[in-house]
């Protein structure tokens, strides 16, 4: 019954009638990355001292010392019982910080469902399964790649290294594969929850692109993109800011730290602009969907098949953002910490609300009717804009940040339409333009970072431009190579039939497989 309802029984003929379309390139990339990670881990393990664990080594050294002293006839020395480092109780505060960060990571992970619903709702019914497959694999591939490669590239300083080695490069460095280990009794977080929180951020950056390339990109090409972005591109630029790279090294070096640096609290540029500019590159190289523009260049609207899905998706994303922004406070047990956390949550709420209102009313003025989809994207634009600066602006300025972001979304959608760049869900206006705005606002409007002179307009411009250019240029190269190899876009017949049946051999809705029951769009 499942096959009859959801899967086409006709073999694919896209590879000379063989019916087989094996995704060899993404599999080669994935296997290669995993192999490198496993080899790196094995070499690191081979360098570990014997006994195998730090605890056993400490015990062994203590026993050798006692035996030596007894043999020498020295007086008896009382030895303290060696306590296992991993068994040390770090207190309720440690447990609270880790529990809240874990919960915030779950909220961010749930944003994948929100992105999927927004994209499904704003696209044709015949591409729904393709959307779900892309979003699902963004998370799955992203988790694997970030485990073996990405985290080590983004946070190389978290791993133990030989002190005699040269200092870590501020541009690109690799600390190791897998999750780092620590025996520091004053640590704030478990390395496991630290990795988990960062991994779901990486998956978020990857899935932004899905909406911009919807309806015409080969699934194999998308997997190649997803592997490279989550495994390499996002972690490298993320290291520049959050891993202690060159974007944190401005001003003077005083007491072991730099006095100035690029500010991006939770990732307007590091996460969202990376995804937005990668999506712009993909949309440009793919070209518009069939029928999106007439031969004379006139724009033809292609409304989504279920705006209700899109609206529910935005609600899910809005809730998930309370893991994204407040969770980035990274400390919750003290009075000042929890005050900052809820302050960030309120700023996030106000910016989203202002973005939705402004986008809705601007569209009302321009189109004579209030456009719900513009309002939905306006809310997302406000959320993206405040992400960089939710800790630094007052509540009133947060409203301004969101309002400007809402206007930018509408302007960005219209600008792309004029340029004939087809972005079905508005991914670039929401994540690219509003991501840039959030970071630049820190150098323009009065806020805590400008008052403390920890950043400047120039520093914010350098950081924002560098991250956006890195994403756009690297992804343009990748999409360009895929296009030259004929691997980027499906053929017109497949696009017309829909990616659900042409790429996956399945229907999202049972009625589509019944004679006369297909959805026209």
From TrEMBL:
The gene is nrgA_1. Belongs to the ammonia transporter channel (TC 1.A.11.2) family. It holds the Pfam family Ammonium_transp. SUPFAM superfamilies: Ammonium transporter. One of its GO terms (molecular function) is ammonium channel activity. Its main location: membrane. This is Ammonium transporter. It is a multi-pass membrane protein. NCBIfam families: amt (TIGR00836). Residues 100-509 form the Ammonium transporter AmtB-like domain. InterPro entries: Ammonium/urea_transptr, Ammonium_transpt, Ammonium_transpt_CS, NH4_transpt_AmtB-like_dom, RhesusRHD. It is found in: Cell membrane; Membrane. GO terms for cellular component: plasma membrane. The chain crosses the membrane at residues 99-124, 136-155, 195-215, 222-240, 265-286, 307-324, 344-367, 396-416, 428-445, 457-482. It comes from Roseimaritima multifibrata. The keyword Transmembrane helix applies. Keywords: Ammonia transport, Membrane, Transmembrane, Transmembrane helix, Transport. PROSITE patterns: AMMONIUM_TRANSP (PS01219). GO terms for biological process: ammonium homeostasis. The keyword Transport applies.
């Amino acid at each position: 019954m499942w096959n009859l309802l959801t899967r086409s029984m006709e073999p694919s003929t896209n590879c000379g009638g063989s019916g087989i379309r094996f995704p060899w390139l993404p599999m080669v990339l994935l296997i290669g990355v995993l192999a490198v990670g496993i080899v790196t881990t094995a070499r690191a393990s081979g360098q570990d001292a014997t006994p195998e664990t730090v605890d056993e080594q400490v015990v062994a050294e203590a026993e050798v010392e006692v035996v030596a002293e007894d043999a020498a006839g020295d007086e008896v020395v009382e030895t303290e019982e060696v306590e296992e480092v991993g068994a040390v109780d770090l207190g309720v505060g440690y447990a609270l910080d880790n529990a809240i960060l874990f919960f915030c990571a779950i909220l961010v992970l749930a944003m994948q469902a929100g992105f999927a619903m927004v994209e499904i709702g704003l696209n044709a019914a015949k591409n729904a399964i393709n959307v779900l497959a892309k979003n699902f694999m963004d998370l799955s591939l992203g988790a694997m790649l970030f485990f073996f490669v990405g985290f080590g590239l983004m946070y190389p300083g978290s791993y133990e290294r030989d002190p005699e080695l040269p200092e870590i490069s501020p541009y690109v460095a690799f600390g190791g594969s897998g999750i780092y280990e620590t025996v520091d009794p004053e640590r704030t977080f478990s390395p496991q929850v630290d990795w988990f929180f960062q991994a779901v951020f990486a998956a978020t950056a990857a899935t932004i692109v899905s909406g911009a390339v919807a309806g015409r990109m080969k699934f194999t090409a998308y997997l190649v993109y997803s592997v490279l972005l989550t495994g390499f591109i996002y972690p490298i630029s993320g290291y520049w800011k959050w891993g202690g790279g060159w974007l944190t090294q401005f001003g003077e070096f005083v007491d072991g730290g730099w006095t100035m640096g690029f500010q991006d609290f939770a990732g307007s540029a590091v996460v969202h602009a990376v995804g937005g500019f990668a999506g712009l590159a993909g949309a440009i190289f793919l070209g518009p969907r069939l029928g999106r523009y007439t031969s004379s260049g006139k724009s033809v609207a292609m409304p989504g098949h279920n705006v209700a899905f899109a609206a529910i998706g935005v609600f899910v994303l809005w809730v998930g953002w309370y893991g994204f922004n407040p969770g980035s406070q990274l400390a919750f047990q003290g009075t000042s910490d929890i005050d900052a956390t809820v302050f960030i949550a309120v700023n996030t709420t106000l910016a989203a609300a202002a973005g939705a209102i402004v986008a809705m009313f601007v569209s009302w003025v321009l189109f004579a009717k209030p456009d719900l989809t513009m309002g939905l994207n306006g809310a997302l634009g406000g959320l993206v804009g405040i992400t960089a600066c939710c800790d630094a602006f007052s509540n009133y300025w947060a409203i301004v940040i969101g309002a400007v972001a809402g206007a930018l979304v509408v302007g960005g959608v219209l600008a792309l339409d004029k340029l004939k760049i087809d972005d079905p869900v508005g991914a670039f206006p929401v994540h690219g333009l509003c991501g840039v705005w959030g970071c630049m606002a820190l150098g323009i409007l009065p806020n805590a970072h400008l008052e403390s002179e920890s950043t400047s307009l120039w520093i914010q411009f350098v950081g924002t431009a560098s991250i956006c250019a890195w994403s756009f240029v690297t992804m343009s190269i990748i999409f360009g190579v895929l296009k030259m190899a004929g691997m980027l876009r499906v053929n017109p017949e497949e696009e017309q039939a829909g990616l659900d049946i042409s790429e996956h051999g399945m229907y999202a809705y049972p009625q589509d497989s019944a004679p006369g029951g297909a959805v026209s769009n």
